[in-house]
């Protein structure tokens, strides 16, 4: 009677040891990544082109000094960046000329480019002054998510807009996101949904606005190969299971956040490459940050480097926000969809 149980025990013991070892390894790796993320975070600096001195970057934890910050991640964009920056600066300068209270900055995050991207960006710093344009070099390539995170954490705006370096989305569409953020913020203040006083500003209310290409889906399905549609639908299912319903287009590179929202989101985001957008949606829900989805104008830009790259590291998973990060005010979660407007099809401007 003892021999069968002894055999089962001999089989179960190695399995339990392996399982325990896997769990310990998994927890150790997660802790190591979290520790490295927190302790090895170097405070970025940027170079003043005139004095050639390294200047410390501002922090998202500081009070806002500008009305809006535009964060542009750039990886080997020497051909497309100049046209996009010219259009962006023309818009910002014209708006500043018409509205004396409007102030801005453009933060270009050079994500380890090996071409002339940094030199081109530095030329714009010299042309428009370091107060309006800054370049944050990351040294080596980290990924679009990390480049945007760095830019967000070291920007000065009340509103923070991330946009691609290819100029696929027209920069003046930021007014659509800006107007809807204002509408939601004013509603929050009227309803008393947030703690506010007479000095409260829109930047103090956490809100996220997502540019969207969702209404082009039907046209895209008709023009794509069947296997691309299959991969797209599969990705949508993964997004639905991971982040839940609400935002139909998570991957559009045109997103705006209030300073309060950016402070909560980008101190907690962990994914460094293309899937970080999904983590942002998850974090908005986890932190009860209202989300708005708004269509934007979009045009085809040659030279897209977009590729479907599988995550090579299965442990590169989102780290859920830990207690005590930021002063979280839990609001009732809502996803607010607004009527779509006209726009044309484009390709994503990163990898």
From TrEMBL:
Membrane topology note: Single-pass membrane protein
Similarity-based family: Belongs to the glycosyltransferase 2 family.
Subcellular location: Endoplasmic reticulum membrane
Entry's Gene Ontology BP terms: protein N-linked glycosylation
Keywords, in A-Z order: Endoplasmic reticulum, Glycosyltransferase, Membrane, Signal-anchor, Transferase, Transmembrane, Transmembrane helix
UniProt protein name: dolichyl-phosphate beta-glucosyltransferase
Domain Glycosyltransferase 2-like: 69-177
GO molecular function (one): dolichyl-phosphate beta-glucosyltransferase activity
